[in-house]
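Morning!

This is the sequence you dropped in the shared folder:
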Amino acid sequence: MTPEFVVSFAKEAIILTIFLSMPMLMLGLIVGFIVAIFQAVTQVQEMTLMFVPKILAVFAGLLFASPWMLDEIVSFTRRIIENIPVYIQ
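The structure's back. C-alpha cells below.
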C-alpha cells in the first residue's frame, strides 16, 4: 500500500461520513433555526423548547433516511472487502 492509496482511502471514508451525516445535521439546523425564530418572536426562553424538537426531527430523519444510509455503508464495505486482494499487493 502506498501513502497515496491510504490518503485516498481515508478521503473516501471521510466523504462518505460527511455525506451520510449531512441530512441529519441539516434537519437539526433547520428546526433549530425555526425554533429560535419562534423564541425570539414570543420571547420564550425555554431550553427544552430548543432541544426536544431538534431531537424529534433528527429521529424522524433517521427513520426515513436509514435505508439509504445502510445501503451506502453496505456498498462501501462490500467494495472494501471485494478489493482486499488488490490492497495487499
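Headline: DSSP finds three helices and no strands in the chain.

More detail when I'm at my desk.
O.
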